[in-house]
């Protein structure tokens, strides 16, 4: 064997012995930011807790009663429509949990995935994880991420109550600003 072949073999053996990575993570490198875009969304959410066909149901409640329903857990699959009329075109749905979490004032913590089923953003979704102080007519929720065309999104949703009753039915207007790639 000549010298260079031996050196080549040593190189091959050494490279094989050195692990390329620690099994579950890559080398950390500088993040190269990409140009972001902004999309505004406008729709109405219909949250119905009453009637024959509720879109939100209480699945657990504590063994105390409170004015603010503190500690209840509500699962929702609320339709999103283009107009305030529930019979207007459905463009998606918000699925997840609504947790009444105010002890003194009625307020929810919302953990919802808003997936769109029409047009450009069909199959894409935005994730909301935010306090939702529903007694305020206007309020803002945090958009913390997304899927599909909204992958790695951030944003805010401005909410205005269009209709609401004490039994827990509501129609809420959403103006959302989504920053995404
Ligand atoms: C609620 O549950 C706790 C813990 O099990 C119990 O001590 C308490 O008596 C219950 N309260 C009511 C109103 O049932
Ligand atoms: C939305 O995407 C689904 C799944 O790809 C497809 O079945 C459906 O036809 C699409 N709807 C519209 C309105 O584009
Ligand atoms: C949401 O509300 C904020 C604060 O009032 C405002 O700056 C922003 O323009 C609103 N965004 C939309 C999409 O309405």
CATH topology: AOC barrel-like
The CATH class assignment is Mainly Beta
Helix fraction by DSSP (H/I, runs of at least 4): under 10%
What's the CATH architecture name? Beta Barrel
Report mean pLDDT, rounded to a whole number: 92
The parts where pLDDT drops under 50 for at least 5 residues are none
Identify the bound ligands: 2-acetamido-2-deoxy-beta-D-glucopyranose
Number of domains: 1
Helix and strand string, N-terminal first?
HEEEEEEEEE
The counted number of beta strands is: 9
Shape: elongated
Adjacency order of strands in the biggest sheet: 1-3-4-5-6-7-8-9
The tally of helices reads 1
Structure overview:
The protein is mostly beta strands and 181 residues long. It has a single domain (34-180), classed as AOC barrel-like. It contains 1 helix and 9 strands; from the N terminus they run H-E-E-E-E-E-E-E-E-E. The protein has one helix spanning 3-17; strands at 37-47, 56-60, 73-81, 90-100, 108-116, 125-132, 138-147, 154-164, 170-180. Strands 1-3-4-5-6-7-8-9 form an 8-stranded antiparallel beta barrel. A hairpin with a 7-residue loop joins strand 4 (90-100) and strand 5 (108-116). The longest helix is centred in the first third of the chain and has 15 residues, at 3-17. It is elongated and about 90 Å long. The protein binds 2-acetamido-2-deoxy-beta-D-glucopyranose (3 copies). Residues 117-118, 122-123 line the site of one 2-acetamido-2-deoxy-beta-D-glucopyranose.
């Amino acid at each position: 064997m000549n010298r260079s072949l031996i050196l080549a073999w040593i190189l091959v053996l050494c490279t094989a012995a050195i692990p390329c990575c620690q099994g579950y993570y890559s080398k950390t490198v500088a993040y190269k930011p990409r140009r972001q875009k902004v999309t505004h969304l406008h729709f109405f959410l219909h949250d119905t807790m009453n009637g024959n066909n509720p879109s939100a149901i209480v699945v657990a409640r504590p063994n105390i009663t409170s004015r603010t329903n503190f500690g209840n857990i509500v699962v929702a699959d609320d339709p999103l429509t283009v107009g305030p009329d529930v019979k207007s075109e459905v463009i998606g749905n918000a699925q997840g949990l609504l947790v009444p979490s105010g002890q003194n004032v009625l307020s929810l913590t919302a953990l919802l995935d808003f997936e769109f089923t029409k047009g450009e953003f069909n199959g894409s979704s935005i994730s909301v994880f935010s306090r939702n102080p529903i007694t305020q007519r206007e309020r803002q929720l945090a958009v913390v991420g997304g899927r599909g065309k909204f992958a790695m999104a951030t944003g805010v949703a401005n909410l205005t109550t269009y209709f609401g009753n004490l039994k827990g039915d509501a129609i809420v207007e959403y103006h959302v600003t989504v920053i995404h790639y």
